[in-house]
Write a structure and sequence with these properties.
Mean pLDDT: 85
Number of strands: 0
CATH architecture: Up-down Bundle
Shape: globular
Largest sheet: none
Distance between the termini: 50 Å
Number of helices: 17
Structural class: mainly alpha
Radius of gyration: 20 Å
Order of helices and strands: HHHHHHHHHHHHHHHHH
Low-confidence stretches: 1-5, 212-216
CATH class: Mainly Alpha
Helix content: over 70%
CATH superfamily: Amino acid/polyamine transporter I
Number of domains: 1
CATH topology: Amino acid/polyamine transporter I
Length: 400
């Protein structure tokens, strides 16, 4: 078991990308606004997305290629769709995770700089780390970050039950699918719970980047990341519910304001002596998410550019890192009003594109008899249900 824990890599990169905005921001908001009821959404989101997330490491281990290669085997049209979707989403995803990280920096340091200016500094710092340190720094950083945050969150979760909780009130939420605001929140919540569906492609690439001798049990590695993020999502939701639900406190829309409220939730349950432990854990978690996204999406675009035989200069993850950093900075400087707006937009776009990515994954698995073994019979059926549910919810959201 100890050897397995030491070998963890891509699974923790998955967790690092997943445990960020979806957990610290969205899960906390879900509990604060609706009590316990959206625990059901966390569970269903994990179940319905499971076949697509598990496909990433399985495909990479079996074929020694990333899922981008799998899409290429379907046809050139699939790579074009993937490229368009990735370019459409990557700047908003990066902007959302970076501005939340900036809010935590404001809370930690008390800097008078705006969250946008801090975000640009964070982006440039992450860019330098990736360009200089390559993959190893990211791999080692993730192990420390996820352990610290997980322990802090789980302890705070159990301590939150020490207060007088009206469990009946927690389960009697006013949430309704017929309410446009509730439906909108559900879409933004599920869009990144536990992560955008793109992470299946990212995970397949990380498995190939991680040395083979350290990733021999990719199934164990995946399960640690997947089930761990599910449990942490529930923990954050319960913390938000126990601290803010039915209170007169309104969650802040600004990055700095929300960061302060998030830290206060933990401190109220653990005590003032834990202030810096929680603050550093939250910051390192979001910083790891920021750097993970900046590592993953350029790797995807590098492979897409190669498969489409685009200009040779675009066959470089370094160039795509610069493009992503620049594009995200422009988006933050000129098009973002506050953190809540950016997060809602990014998660909604991810939700609406999820059925397309899920369908492409289904095409990869069902293109021939060899690939069909990537999913069990149960996973095949679950994937079809997932595609249908995500599609129906997307249509309902767009119509109403």
């Amino acid at each position: 078991m100890l050897s397995k824990l030491k070998s963890l890599g891509p699974g923790l990169l998955y967790a690092g990308a997943a445990v960020g905005v979806s957990h610290l921001v969205q899960s906390t908001r879900a509990g604060a606004q609706y009590g316990y009821i959206l625990i059901v959404a966390i569970i269903l989101a994990h179940i319905l997305k499971y076949p697509f997330f598990v496909l990433g490491p399985r495909y990479a281990k079996r074929n020694k290629q990333s899922l981008v290669h799998g899409f290429a085997e379907i046809g050139n049209w699939a790579i074009w769709i993937l490229g368009i979707l990735t370019v459409t989403m990557m700047f908003t995803i990066q902007a959302a995770v970076t501005i939340v990280t900036a809010g935590l920096v404001q809370k930690m340091t008390g800097l008078g700089l705006s969250s946008v200016n801090i975000s640009i500094i964070i982006l440039l710092t992450c860019l330098c780390i990736l360009q200089i340190g390559k993959f190893k720094i990211l791999d080692h950083l993730m192990k420390v970050v996820m352990v610290v945050l997980s322990i802090s969150t789980i302890v705070a979760f159990f301590f939150s039950f020490r207060t007088n909780i009206d469990f009946t009130a927690m389960t009697q939420s006013s949430f309704s699918l017929s309410d446009n605001s509730d439906l909108s929140f559900l879409v933004t919540f599920v869009g990144w719970m536990p992560a955008p569906l793109d992470i299946a492609i990212w995970h397949s690439i990380w498995v190939l980047v991680k040395p083979e001798k350290q990733s021999s049990d990719s199934n164990f590695d995946f399960k640690v990341g997947f089930y761990g993020t599910a449990f942490l999502g529930i923990c954050f939701l319960v913390l938000g519910a126990h601290t803010l639900y039915l209170s007169d406190i309104t969650l802040e829309a600004s990055a700095g304001g929300f960061a302060a409220q998030l830290i206060d939730i933990f401190v109220s349950n653990l005590g003032e002596s834990f202030y810096w432990v929680i603050t550093i854990a939250a910051f390192t978690t979001m910083f790891s998410t920021t750097i993970t996204c900046l590592d993953a999406m350029p790797r995807v675009m590098e492979e897409i550019s190669s498969k489409l035989k685009l200009n040779q200069k675009l066959h470089s993850k370094s160039l795509w890192r610069y493009i992503l950093t620049s594009g995200t900075s422009i988006l933050l400087l000129f098009f973002v009003k506050d953190m809540k707006q950016m997060v809602s937009f990014a998660t909604t776009v991810s939700f609406l594109t999820a059925p397309i990515l899920a369908w492409l994954c289904w095409k990869v698995v069902n293109k021939d008899n060899k690939s069909i073994a990537l999913w069990s019979l149960f996973e095949h059926k679950l994937a079809i249900i997932g595609i249908l549910v995500l599609s129906i919810l997307s249509v309902v959201y767009l119509l109403f």
